[in-house]
Design a protein that fits this description.
Immunoglobulin-like; three-stranded antiparallel sheet; 0% helix; 34% strand; globular; binds copper (II) ion; binds zinc ion
Length: 148
Amino acid sequence: MAAKAGGLKGVALIGGGANSTVAGALHFFQDPASGFTEVRGKVTGLAPGLHGFHIHSFGDTTNGCNSTGPHFNPHNKPHGAPIDDERHVGDLGNIVANRDGVAEVFIKDLQISLTGPHSILGRAVVVHADPDDLGRGKLAYNSAAILL
Ligand SMILES: [Cu+2]
Ligand SMILES: [Zn+2]
């Protein structure tokens, strides 16, 4: 993700691995007054249903999801849902693909930030093949298609 000049903005281009059809563009905008960061965009080529959606620690996608490290977690919290106070900063929950494999993304979040010591700029946005259980269950969500 790269910062655009002159404001609290970022963009992530989603692209899957060699055999993946996943593509998309996500725009990040942070309102300096409220602190809320909006994530807007569209991801296509997904299987219908829920897909875990996270900020991972490292903006290194050379080895797909594996090189992006764990969920961005500067405060050392447990994994959770976006609405939880106790969550990884990078826990943005799930996005939902319709039967055509298209997920329209619109998220407003107060924990991810485009500025300051815990900025998410330069990190990885990961769209997983599997759903995120939001810390409620025991689902593994090691994953597939990727980002940035
Ligand atoms: Cu993830
Ligand atoms: Zn997490």
